[in-house]
Amino acid sequence: MAVYALTGFSLVSLLSFGYLSWDWMKPSLVADVATDPMEKPLPPTFTRPPHIIFILTDDQGYHDIGYHGSDIQTPTLDRLAAEGVKLENYYIQPICTPSRSQLITGRYQIHTGLQHSIIRPRQPNCLPLDQVTLPQKLQEAGYSTHMVGKWHLGFYKKECLPTRRGFDTFLGSLTGNVDYYTYDNCDGPGVCGYDLHEGEDVAWDQSGKYSTFLYAQRVSKILASHSPKEPIFIYVAFQAVHTPLQSPKEYIYRYRSMGNVARRKYAAMVTCMDEAVKNITWALKKYGYYDNSVIVFSTDNGGQTFSGGSNWPLRGRKGTYWEGGVRGIGFVHSPLIKRKRRTSWALVHITDWYPTLVSLARGNLSNVQGLDGYDVWPAISEGKESPRTEILHNIDPLYNHAKYGSLEYGFGIWNTAVQASIRVGEWKLLTGDPGYSDWIPPQTLTNFPGSWWNLERLTDGLRKSMWLFNITADPYERYDLSEQRPDVVRTLLMRLVHYNRTAIPVRYPAENPRAHPDFNGGAWGPWASEDDGEEWEGSREPLKSRNKKKKCKICKLRSFFRKLNTRLMSNRI
């Protein structure tokens, strides 16, 4: 009772400050042009497969776009969304690699073995090589395919690189985060290397160019050199607005009145990215692609509140399974949409883009088995009901088990110590440790007063291992109904059991010292030869080699690299 009273008081206080002035049911602050329900729009003429531009931003918070009431200026994104279809029931994953893997494969991460954490630079791991990727399917349909930006799906072998996974060209970084100017990335003290690649080569000559500008310029160059008569797919995975917080000074100056320094830099990066999207859109029109194009915009996970991001009024942040971690910004802009200028509440997940875009491209999905995504184009373009009724957010057996979880607490159906989350219809269930469960208002002040959200987390969250919410009625996840609706809890637990039976072993191998950039000319890149077998198979630990002689050589090689790495580290210190 004390917790609810405190929470209620805090909400009233925030209302007095205007923090809850944004209407959830009317999220757009840009007026939507109403469509006459009696008007029958003329269908677009699909004389040719459409050009597809997929834009993915990194760590952009749910609140960090103009039409969600943000203090950050995003005029281009606001206009594109207002003229297209805003997806306000759109879900992604809470961290980088899982979202990207599900976009590229159309499969939940439990079906690719990537259900735990991210792929780290020194891990001998990548998107499973037996997966047929989205760009590969588009290539089959006659598309020219290009990727610009952040890969983060593994690179320990050349077979893992974007140009081996369906992209004709690639300019970008292979790891999770790099300096926006120097493209250096450190994976621990002294383990640093350069990470900007052109195709399969290191792009040393591009150092010093701000990545957001560089990537937008590359997209324009691709469009200028290609014929609009031939279909093209461009995957633009901006590094922005992931840390480090770096932006050209002229963009920071616009937000000089912001007291929160991290928020000021972050806002500058978002606006800079917005202008990059403007330049891409302009290039589509200039070179004759626009009238037959589909632009998809998506974030990859929730915003990191420690680094200036905001998911207000949602609960949680990047890395959590609360709505603030998994509900994404998404919209589609295209002259080919039949019912434009509206907001869609159709349930959409990032896995849905695979079958949706392949179908738009007139590709063949009959030979692709086991997709978890659905073709949601009719829901987006025509306003029809979404074929999706549930989402498995994830099941991660390796994540730290919740202290108060047990099989008994899960009615003998599910061990609630295991981190998992699922949505079925309007209901959402979380088990285990879902992650930091706060509600953080927009960080416009230098030091926001009060920590009422932490009090609820400390008195409630740490002693629980299962939550149930009616997301339709309670999108902020304030009212846990797990005790009031055990019938619903049981139903959703059974769905978790169903999905868990289809999961493949987790791929999360130990780091390999051979990955050190010092052994690769100072740059991050593939280090395993094509003859090297995979060192993992469903566990954290490397598998024992069946070939004792080969195993001995590998062990000696590893020992040598460890000693050499230790000497290098000691010399640097």
UniProtKB/TrEMBL annotation:
CDD domains according to UniProt: 4-S
Domain Sulfatase N-terminal: 50-361
Cofactor: Ca(2+)
One Pfam match: Sulfatase
Cited InterPro entries: Alkaline_phosphatase_core_sf (IPR017850), ARSB (IPR047115), Sulfatase_CS (IPR024607), Sulfatase_N (IPR000917)
Keywords, comma-separated and alphabetical: Calcium, Glycoprotein, Hydrolase, Metal-binding
Region (Disordered): 515-544
GO molecular function: metal ion binding; sulfuric ester hydrolase activity
Protein family: Belongs to the sulfatase family.
UniProt-recorded name of the protein: ARSI Arylsulfatase
Species assigned in the record: Hippolais icterina (icterine warbler)
